Amino acid sequence: MEDDQRTILLVEDNPDDELLTLRALEENKIKNTVVVAHDGVEALEYLFGTGAYKGRDLSVMPQVILLDIKLPRIDGLEVLRRLRADQRTTLLPSVILTSSREEQDIIRGYKLGANSYIRKPVDFDQFAEAVRQLGLYWLVLNETPKPRRG
Amino acid sequence: MGSKHGSLRKGSFGALLSGLVVLAIAAVALAGWATGRHLLASMGDSFVPMAPDTALSFIILGLSLVLLSTCRQSYFRPIRYSAFLVASIATLRLVESVSSIDLNVDRWLFRFPLDWFGPKQAGYMAVTSAACSLCISTSLFLTTMSGRKANAGDIADTLAIVASSIGLGIVLVYALGAPMHYSRTTIPMALNTAVAFCVLGGGVLIVPTLQDSIVLSALKGQRLVVPIDRKILGGFGLVLGLVLSLSTVSYQTICQFLEPSRPVIASVTRALIAPSLLLVSIMAVLTVTYFAVRRELAQGHRIEADGRKAKIFLDSIIENVPAMIFVKDVRELRFIRFNKAGEEILGFSREEMIGKNDYDLFPKEQADLFTAKDRDLLAGNSVVDIPEEPIQTKHKELRFIHTRKIALKDDQGDSTHIIGISEDITQHKLAEETIRESEEKFRNVFEHSPIGNSLTTCDGTVRVNNEFCALVGYSEEELSTIDWRDITHPDDIDESQRVLSTLIAGENDHARYQKRYIHKSGKIVWADVSAFLQKDKKGKPLFIVTSNNDITERKRAYEALELVNTQLETANKELESFSYSVSHDLRAPLRSIDGFSQALLKDYNDNLDETGKDFLRRVRAASQKMANLIDDLLKLSRIARSEMHRERVNLTMVARETAEELQKTQPARRVEFIIADGVTAYGDPHLLRVGMENLLGNSWKFTGKNPAARIEFGATHGDGRAVYYIRDNGVGFDMAYADKLFGAFQRLHPNSEFEGTGIGLATVQRIIHRHNGRVWAEGKINEGATFYFSL
Q1: Where are the beta strands (DSSP E) in B413-467?
Q2: Burial of A146 (0-12, 13-18, 19+ CB in 10 A)
Q3: Rounded to whole angstroms, how far apart are CA atoms B540 and B517?
Q4: Hey, what CATH topology would domain B452-550 get?
Q5: Strands (E) located in B522-571
Q6: Would you call B624 and A123 a contact, using CB atoms and an 8 Å cutoff?
Q7: Cα atoms found within 13 Å of the Cα of residue B589, Cβ hemisphere only
Q8: What would the pLDDT profile of B607-652 be if each residue is shown by its tens digit?
Q9: Is beta strand B383-392 parallel, antiparallel or unpaired with respect to B462-464?
């Protein structure tokens, strides 16, 4: 797959999971830029160009956000709620990628506007397969509206 | 009666006086004859003297009247003889006068010379005198008979009136100075004779008799005859007497003129006219009397008819009065009268009652009571009231009557009859009894109820039972002085007041609420109160009954339960967050273990020998297994926490779907599913599906080594409820370990033989228990197993 500026925002606090996810992307030849935020605050700073990401070119928005739920400071669902509430990010494809299989989490995730909900399998082979399909779908097949300038 | 006795005496005195006057007049006249003094016999020089036999007749009649005035019956017989004697003399004189046969009646007493008092025919009884004498004597005779013969008294009175009227007429003729002529056969009545007849007639008329004649009572105005009759009778008698006297005088005068020229006609006239006139006048008087009597009788009949009508009227009242009326004679206390209502009450017909006494009809103790009351009555009470007496009817049924007994008395004040009036009060008494029983029931329920009851009437009186006293710690006396607000928790006063107000306002007739009482000891007592307002027929409140159930313990237990529930909720929440951590945090390291093992195997494949690779594979398998365990544990806890929604679930369908799913997991296996049709259960659809999946999955798993595997699902009945079963012909199990089947992580087979976490059947048990059902299993090694559950 060609390396383009279509980035992936991975919000993941667990360094092991971060490493394994990147490995899975790599194994599946997904070369897109992966921006990693280690908690909800960092994710929001990146998305809205604040804090550590102050001055970031906001015309560049991730092609897809891979969002863990359980995060320090601001959790994944809250991140989802805020980006759906903001005009600039309200249409961004967001995939919840989490260990939880709680019915409650799934329902709340979709209610807040998640585009997909994927449970991380323990088996890495299965995980790698899931990541492959994710990349194929969200980075290749899926069409998104042109980002609107706020 | 006093007045009657008085009039008797008065009458007898008048009669006595009359008799004595007559005797005096006659005695004087006789003395005149005896001594030859004309004046004594005639009372005037030119007057005719009273004939001696006339005087004799007066002596007899006067004596009779004197005797009669004593009213003694023993004199009646001699009076009758005397009257008969006088009547005989008068009759003989009349016969002599009419027939011209000279019997010399006048000479029987005194053989005086014919010219004793001059040449005139003195000394002979006048024809009119004889007639009057006959009237009076007959009147006397009949007077003594008046008690025995009907109308005798009336005729007697009439004759007396005629005689005295004639006498009075003659007296009037004398007073007017009319000439009195003598002849051989015509002799005028002497003045003293006329006076004597007047007096004698009056005396006979007023003499008291055993029974007042109609005529006399008419004269006295005592009978129900109108006053005009008295006038007619008296006036008629008087006028007749006068007319008779005048005509006697006139016909004598006529005869006087005819005598010289036509002696024969004169004599015939004399002989016929006088007696005819007399006869006619007597007949006239009798006729008038007859009509008066008839009229009187008619009146009597009318009275009698009225009496009969009155009796029928009275009978009808007695008969139709809706109360038992009976009459008893006083001598033997036998029933002599009995009415319809009485027949209805007692069941005895009047034929059965009449002539019997109480002992013939009623049980002895009742008859004793009735008779005792009768005796009381006769002993002097004029009325005896018996408010309630039991009486046995003919059909041995006990009734209660309210009786009033009255003694009927005669003129002398002696009791003749007992009248009883009885009202049947059985229904009333039964109603009273029912009310009393119902009151007693209410009292018993009120008093002995294990609930504290209070009854407050509108005037503020309070009644409570022992339980209520125990509830609030006050005695009934204390409570009667305490307002309910004083023993009510301040926070509950308004609410209680509001409830009571709605009751009194009539919005509800009962209410239920909870309130706190303050016990005498100061502790709070919770009560579940049921209040009921009793109203009268007009809807006016009468009293309020409250039942106070002490629920302090219940409240305490409830509060404790609330606390436990809260704790449980907290615990559940904790468990939830724990599960969350388990599912999220425990899995993350597993992923790392597996992920990096895989990375090692892939990236460092060449640096690892086969043993190293095997180890890494085992690491990966173990982490996989642990992930499965975590998932199963989560499922189990989710089942325990999930909410239940019971509905009818088609288990047949669930079984079929599950079988299909299972077949898909291992399409190569050949398993015979025998699933009964139409099996349903009432439970949570999701949980039941999970349960069925686990049970069928269990069978699927343990029949894995049987090439002719068979799994059955169906339902039977046991203990009145449906028992569902899943039977397989798998490896079975040893019943010795049956109790371990349903424990979490308990396994009867090594993993090498059958894979599993040991959570499946534990999950089933949890599901069944959540339905308050039961699950158990039967099996034998290598002979399959059957799992049963009921909900």
Answers
A1: 415-424, 452-457, 462-464
A2: exposed
A3: 29
A4: Beta-Lactamase (3.30.450)
A5: 524-535, 541-550
A6: yes
A7: 8
A8: 889 998 999 999 998 888 888 888 877 777 777 777 788 899 999 9
A9: unpaired
Under the banding of pLDDT at 50, 70 and 90, the label for residue B540 is confident
Cβ contact (<8 Å) for A17 and B588?
A: yes
Length of chain B, in residues? 791
Q: Which residue of A has its CA nearest to B593?
A: A122
Which whole number is the average pLDDT over B308-324? 87
pLDDT band of residue B199 (cuts 50, 70, 90) is confident
Interchain pair B592, A16: CB under 8 A: yes
CATH 3.30.450.20 residue spans of chain B: 321-430, 452-550
Convert the pLDDT of each residue in B735-778 to its tens digit: 888 777 887 767 777 766 677 777 788 889 888 988 888 898 99
The CA distance from B688 to the nearest CA of chain A, in Å, is: 19
Q: What is the mean pLDDT of residues B30-57?
A: 79
Tell me what the mean pLDDT of segment A107-119 comes to.
91
Long-range pairs, B502-510, Cβ under 8 A, ≥24? B503/B531, B503/B533, B503/B541, B503/B544, B504/B533, B504/B541, B504/B544, B506/B535, B506/B539, B509/B533, B509/B535
Domains of chain A: 8-139 (3.40.50.2300)
* Mean pLDDT score, A8-18: 90
CATH of domain B321-430: 3.30.450.20
Mean pLDDT of chain B: 81
Strands B462-464, B709-718: pairing is: unpaired
What are B706-743's pLDDT values in tens digits?
888 999 999 988 777 889 999 999 888 888 887 778 87
- Alpha-helical (H) ranges within B70-210 are 76-99, 127-145, 152-176, 191-206
d(C-alpha B326, C-alpha B318), whole Å: 9
> In chain A, what residues touch B579 (CB-CB under 8 Å)?
102
Name chain B contacts of A121, Cβ cutoff 8 Å: 591
What average pLDDT does the segment B403-415 reach?
85
Q: Measuring CA to CA, which residue among B408, B406, B414 is closest to residue B385?
A: B406
ipTM of the complex: 0.81
Task: Report CA-CA distances (Å) from A131 to A28, A95, A121.
Answer: 8, 11, 11
Contact A8, A33 (CB under 8 A): yes
Return d(Cα B440, Cα B451) in angstroms, integer: 18
Q: CATH 3.30.565.10 in chain B: give the residue spans.
A: 645-790
**Other beta carbons less than 10 A from residue A70's beta carbon:** 18
Q: How many helices (H) and strands (E) does chain B have?
A: 24, 17
| Minimal C-alpha gap between B624 and chain A (Å) | 7
CATH of domain B645-790: 3.30.565.10
Is it the case that residue B656 has pLDDT exceeding 90?
A: yes
- Quick one: tokens of A57? 């070119």
pLDDT at A80: 93
What would the DSSP string read from start to end of A41-85?
Answer: HHHHHHHHT-GGGTT--TT---SEEEE-SS-SSS-HHHHHHHHHH
Instruction: Read off the pLDDT of each residue in B424-430 and give the average, rounded to a whole number.
Output: 88
Q: In what order do the strands lie in the sheet with B462-464?
A: B462-464, B452-457, B541-550, B524-535, B510-518
Residues 581-600 of B with CB under 8 A from A: 583-585, 587-592, 594-599
DSSP B590-605: HHHHHHHHHHHHHHTG
Alpha carbon of A106: minimum distance to chain B alpha carbons (Å): 13
How many Å apart are CA B334 and CA B327, to the nearest integer?
8
The residues, ordered by sequence, that sit 6+ positions from B17 with a Cβ below 8 Å of its Cβ are B203
- pLDDT (0 to 100) of residue B245: 63
Q: How many residues does chain A have?
A: 150
